[in-house]
Specification:
Layout: E1 5-9, H1 19-25, E2 33-37, H2 38-41, H3 49-57, E3 61-67, H4 75-84, E4 91-94, E5 97-100, E6 107-113, H5 128-131, H6 133-141, E7 145-146, E8 150-152, H7 161-176
Parallel strand pairs: 1-2, 1-3, 3-6, 6-7, 6-8
Antiparallel strand pairs: 4-5
Helix pairs in contact: 1-7
This protein binds flavin mononucleotide.
Flavin mononucleotide binds at residues 11, 17-20, 67-71, 113-116, 155-156.
Length: 177
């Protein structure tokens, strides 16, 4: 049976996106992938918690896709996570301690585009993983299996259209893996 994937797309404005727009376009024809552009769905940040939780329940794998903004995700994703990964849904606190709930056992993947190049994240800034530990640690805390991320570098200018075209099918393959 094919894997069902939920892509939580957290771009500030997909109308002005080049990289994430092209990557997500590659997923359009795939029935097993649901893409939720959360900034378009919730421009006022009023997240429909139930709808988002239902989308997670249907998925074997949850992907957070976003452009790196100041060594973090765009703020809508933090709001989404704070509201959707609620007590009772993501975990419970019982007399025996924390109990994992709906996220337990699902896969978690980061798909992030960086304006910076690879070398920048191996020098001044230690690594993309280090920047994004809150997302990785939250997934682990909730019992998710963190799988290999898909990181795209030089997304502001040095990534040519040809390279982006070549990346798009690789992205889809990684999402469905
Ligand atoms: C507010 C803002 C903050 C950014 N911060 C970073 C950053 O910390 N590190 C980085 O590598 N790129 C940074 N960038 C560049 C974006 O990550 C880059 O423009 C984006 O990945 C391109 O994807 P898109 O074509 O889908 O918009 C920033 C861009 C903006 C607008």
């Amino acid at each position: 049976m094919s894997k069902k994937v939920l892509v939580v797309l957290a771009h500030d404005d997909m109308k002005i996106s080049r990289v994430n727009k092209r990557l997500v376009q590659e997923l359009e024809s795939c029935d097993n992938i649901e893409v939720r552009d959360i900034k378009a769905l919730y421009p006022d940040y009023k997240i429909d918690i139930e709808a988002e939780q239902e989308a997670i329940k249907k998925a074997d794998k949850v992907v957070f896709q976003f452009p790196m903004f100041w060594f973090n995700a765009p703020s809508i994703l933090k709001e989404w996570m704070d509201k959707v990964y609620s007590l009772g849904f993501a975990f419970d606190v019982t007399q025996d301690g924390y109990q994992r709930r709906e996220l337990d056992g699902r896969e978690f993947m980061l798909a992030v585009s960086m304006g910076g190049h690879e070398a920048a994240y191996d020098g001044d800034y230690k690594s993309v993983d280090e920047c994004l530990t809150p997302y990785i640690y939250t997934a682990k805390f909730c019992g998710m299996k963190v799988v290999e991320p898909f990181y795209t570098y030089r997304a502001m200018q040095n990534l040519s259209d040809e390279k982006l075209e070549a990346l798009a099918p690789q992205f889809k393959e990684a999402i469905l893996k």
